[in-house]
Amino acid sequence: MPASSPVVVVVAALCCALLLCVDASVHDYTGERFAALGNAFVLNGGSEGVYASPAADSFIRFEKVAFKRTPESAAAAEEDGNRTATITAVVSEAADRDAVGGSDVTATGVRALCCTPDMASRGACTEGSLVHRAPNGTASSDSWPKVLSASFVPGALEAVFPDETVAVSRTGMYSLRFVHCDASLDVAAEGKTIWKNSRGYGYLPGRMAPLLAFYGVMSLAFAALAAFWFLRYTRFWREVTPLQNLVTVVIALGMVEVTTWYLDLAEFSESGVRPAGTTFWAATAGAVRRTVSRVLVLLVAMGYGVVRSTFPGGGGAGARVAALGAAFFAASEALEVGDHVGAVSDHDQSRTRRLFLVLTVAALDAAFICWIFAALSRTISRLKARRMAAKVEMYRRLATSLTIGVAVSLGWITFEVHFKSTDGYHSERWRVAWVIPAVWQLISFALLCAICLVWAPSHDSTRFACSDECGDDDGEDGERPVMIRAGPLSYVDNWACYVTQDAKIILRTDSGVYAKAGDEDKRV
């Protein structure tokens, strides 16, 4: 079995597991449990950007949300005098974050969400209850956060929230948290909440909503590029080279990727449930496209099809290219599937897992970039030595395009790190968060367009292709400098001396008899 097989098996298993964990703007709760946070226990019910409208069609709806406690928790409550345990649901907007929790700080440095004895002694709250207040000291019916509660009656194992709809009257990033303050309470969540946007976005989360139109435009852009390439391809099909066939594959993969993303978001917006199959294939098409693109550029940089007529396999280069490509695909596929399949709000993603995959993909990308530029330098030097000016100019244009692409990518990475490290998804900047993946798509598309312009099929495509004489010889594609021989002046057994018309002297170290001036330049 090849060495890369275990990696492929692991990636396939991860993808299948994630396909079973489909979430949506319809947030389902199936046995999720609370985690300790300061002096409270919290379960994140979702976090999304919501656009409001005058029509008041944006909302967060509770449907059959219930919490079941264990018999042991019920018995502990009875022993404590049938103490009532309460679960509180808090819907808050990012600007009203300070409206939940008290002024005291716990030993772990976290704001106390539950009322402490000191706070109760000051009359600020009831000990053991969630602390919340209307922002800016107001108490109007439209104030935030919105608070719902459900209590366990003595002896009951289930507390049910009423089916209620919370209307969203202002645009913002909203989060839902279920909170309780009873350390002996062991409960699991069931039911679902439905989050709906306005402005024609349907059930799409606010930070993803503009991507629907973006991928629609990108689908048209790829269609235009494909039409240009197809017309050139069919017109000059006799001169098409293997490299141009690989470019065709990359264009096709790009079309499949952006079109599938558009269909994925369109169905998500319509139904509220993200289609796992469509999302998976969109993520996979993207991973394949990025891998093939990098391998293609690396092969071109190594001179395949231009300086070399065969795959550059000397010194095990072919195996190294295949290994690097397989590793990049495995890491990129795992990252894309984990980011998109079943993920809606940021709480759906494991930050540790994602950080590991992001660093892995970045390291492999850096390996590709270093190898590509090193190979470009060697190839350009070889072409200069052979005085192939046309091919040197072509490679220089490619190197310039790649340099600009890498510089823009580094600048955008810096901006993305700053954007996310400053809490971009949880503040008002969630409305421009869609620009992050959009710019990456644009950079990739721009580089593909540059390659298509440099390598577009034409009547002289074979001029840049490698002929049968490619290799370590100096002659290639008729660009070998020709020395015109006027005729032999003298010769000895093992060498001959010639003088060209431009007064250059050529020494030949092989012996033989040559034709006289005016005959063909060959031995007789």
From TrEMBL:
InterPro entries: GOST_TM (IPR053937), GPR107/GPR108-like (IPR009637). The chain crosses the membrane at residues 212-231, 355-377, 398-415, 435-456. The keyword Transmembrane helix applies. Keywords: Membrane, Signal, Transmembrane, Transmembrane helix. Residues 1-24 form the signal peptide. It is a multi-pass membrane protein. It is found in: Membrane. The keyword Protease does not apply. It comes from the Eukaryota. It holds the Pfam family GOST_TM. GO terms for cellular component: Golgi apparatus; membrane. Residues 210-461 form the GOST seven transmembrane domain. This is GOST seven transmembrane domain-containing protein. It comes from Lolium multiflorum.
